[in-house]
Description:
Layout: H1 3-22, E1 25-26, H2 36-42, E2 53-54, E3 57-58, H3 64-81, E4 85-87, H4 93-104, E5 110-113, H5 132-135, E6 140-143, E7 146-147, E8 152-153, H6 155-167, E9 174-177, H7 188-197, E10 201-205, H8 210-214, H9 221-224, E11 228-232, E12 243-247, H10 252-263, H11 269-306, E13 310-311, E14 323-327, H12 334-343, E15 346-347, E16 349-351, E17 368-372, H13 374-378, H14 383-397, H15 403-414
Parallel strand pairs: 1-15, 5-6, 5-9, 9-10, 10-11
Antiparallel strand pairs: 2-3, 4-12, 7-8, 11-12, 13-14, 14-17, 16-17
Helix pairs in contact: 2-11, 3-11, 4-10, 6-7, 11-14
Pyridoxal-5'-phosphate (PLP) is lined by residues 30, 92-94, 121, 123, 178-180, 205, 207-208, 232, 243.
Amino acid sequence: xxxxxxxxxVLGLLRKHHEWFNNSIPLIASENxxxxxxxxxxxxxxxxxxxxxxPGERVYAGCTYxxxxxxxxxxxxxxxxxxxxxxCRATSGVVANLAIYSAFSDPGDYMIAASIxxxxxxxxxxxxxxxxxxxxxxxxxxxxxxxxxxxxxxVDATKKKIEEMARSGKTPxxxxxxxxxxxxxxxxxxxxxxxxxxxxxINYDGAHVAGLIAGGRFQDPLREGVDTMTMSSHKTLWGPQxxxxxxxxxxxxxxxxxxxxxxxxxxxxxxxxxxAIALTESLEFGKEYATQVIANAQKLGEQLAGLGxxxxxxxxxxxxxxQIAVDVSKFGDGGTVEKDLENANIIxxxxxxxxxxxxxxxxxxxxxxxxxxxxxxxLGMKEDQMIDIAHFIKRVVIEKENPTIVAKDVSNFRKEFxxxxxxxxxxxxxxxxxxxxxxxxx
Length: 442
Ligand SMILES: *Cc1c(COP(=O)(O)O)cnc(C)c1O
C-alpha cells in the first residue's frame, strides 16, 4: 500500500473500531466512556503545547489559559477527594505511582503490596516480573497475606508479617493499598496506625475505584489514614487517560518535584483539561453514578451465580465495587472464554484469580474473568440490563451458542444505549466518530 492508502487505512480502522464498540457490550473493568465535553478537550490545541512546572512557575510561554485550566483542575480534585493538595499532572496511574516511589523511598527499600493474583497491579510488582516498583525504582516487594474467604487483605497476618520484616531489618518504607482486582475495600483504617508506628508511608492506589471514592461509595482513604492517594483518571473516574495524586500540604513539595522534573516533561495538557471537566461531572453526578455502578455489579454477580457461574466473594454479596470476578474453569479457561465472548461483541478480560499461580496457571490461561460495569452504567444501563447481560454471557460460555448469532442480539440490545449519561451535555453520541478530514467515507 502506498502512503496515501495507508493514511486512509488508518482512518478507516478508527471508524471500524467506533462502529464495533457502538454494537458491543463493553465490560472491561478498567475502562469507561468519557463525555463529549471530555472528548472535545482532548482534541483541543492544549494537546500540542508544553507547560513544564507548576501554574505560575512555567518553563514555557503561552500558558495563559493552560494555567487557568490547571488551577481549576487541581482545585476540583481537592474538592472531589477532600484533599489539602492535588497534582493532576501525572500522565498515567503508573506515572503517579512512580512519583510516589521516587518521593518517598529509595532503591533497595522494601514495599508491601498486594500480589498480582490477589489483585495487585503490575506497577506494584517485583523486578523479576518486570513490575514498575522493582524494575524502575529498585524496590523489594513483599506481599500482604490475603484471605480468599473475605477476598481482601488479612489484617492479623499482615501485622505479623510486618513485625517479622522489622525483626529481620526489612521494615517496609512504603505500604501500598489498592489494586486491579478489587471487590472489597482494603483494611486501611485497621492497619494505618500500626503501619505508621513503623514509619511506613502509606499510599492508596485508587486507579480502579477513584470514581466510586469520588461518589462517596467505596472507602475514603484520606480519612482512613493514608498519606497519599494515586489514581488513574479514566477508570471509574470517567476522564481522559491520565493520573492524579491527592494528599496533604506537608507532602506537596516532594510530590511536585517527583512529578516534574522527576517523572514527566510534557504533562499532556489536553488531558488536564479533560480531567477538569470529568471532575465537574463527578461533583454533580458522581454519587448517583457510583451508587448505580455498585448496584449493577451486585446484580450482575447475583444473576451470573444464579445461572451456574462461580462468582467470587459470594459470602459478602459478590462485590462492593464496580467489578466482579468469575471462576470459569468449569467451562474452559479465562483466555478462551474471553475470546468467545469477544466474538459475540461482549468485551471483557481474563483474570488470574487467587491460587492460580500456585495451581500452575498463568495470565494467558487463568481460571477467571473479570467483569466491570462502569461503562455500561455510563451508557444508562440499570439492574434490568444486567439480567440481559448475564443471559448473553451464559449463551456463549455455558450453552456454547455460536458467538456470531449472539453478537446480532447484542447489537440490537445496544441500540437503546447510545448516549453518555451523568453529564451536562450529551448531544454527541457516546461512540460517534468525529471526523475532521475531507476524505470519502472509508
Ligand atoms: C490501571 C491501574 C494502574 C495503571 O494506571 P494507568 O493509568 O494505566 O497507568 C495502576 N494501578 C492500578 C491498581 C491499576 O489498576
